[in-house]
Structures are given as C-alpha cells and as structure tokens.
Design brief:
Elements lengths: L3 E4 L2 E4 L4 E4 L2 E4 L4 E4 L2 E5 L4 E5 L2 E4 H4 L3
Antiparallel strand pairs: 1-4, 2-3, 5-8, 6-7
Length: 64
C-alpha cells in the first residue's frame, strides 16, 4: 500500500496481564520511522521496563 506502513502485532503488558494488539496499516509519517514496543533494561531504575511503540524522527532512529 503506497504511503502506508505495516505496524506488526505485539503483546502489550497491562499490569496484571498481556493483551494481543493486532497488526495494522498506518499512514507513513515523512521523516519518521516506527520503533516497535520492547522490553529494555533501564540503568536508572535498575529494572526491565516496557517501552511503548512510537514514531521517532529518522535521525533519532539512526542512534539506536
């Protein structure tokens, strides 16, 4: 689909449980790229934390 980006489905943690969020098409955002949700280690919190999926400027994505 021209001008569209596929956002893959993922398991979203709600606190007591996980819920499946199905994949879907979204309009592309020029200059941005989709970063999927992830569980990453936070040195500040000294714990594993869930990061929501988000649109990031292409320049910021190059740093990951």
């Amino acid at each position: 689909m021209a001008g569209m980006v596929w956002i893959s489905g993922y398991w979203h943690y709600t606190g007591p449980d996980y819920v499946w969020i199905p994949g879907h098409w979204e309009a592309a955002r020029p200059g941005y790229g989709w970063t999927p949700p992830a569980v990453v280690f936070s040195p500040d919190r000294r714990a594993w934390v869930y990061e929501h999926g988000r649109w990031e400027p292409s320049s910021a994505r190059a740093l990951h």
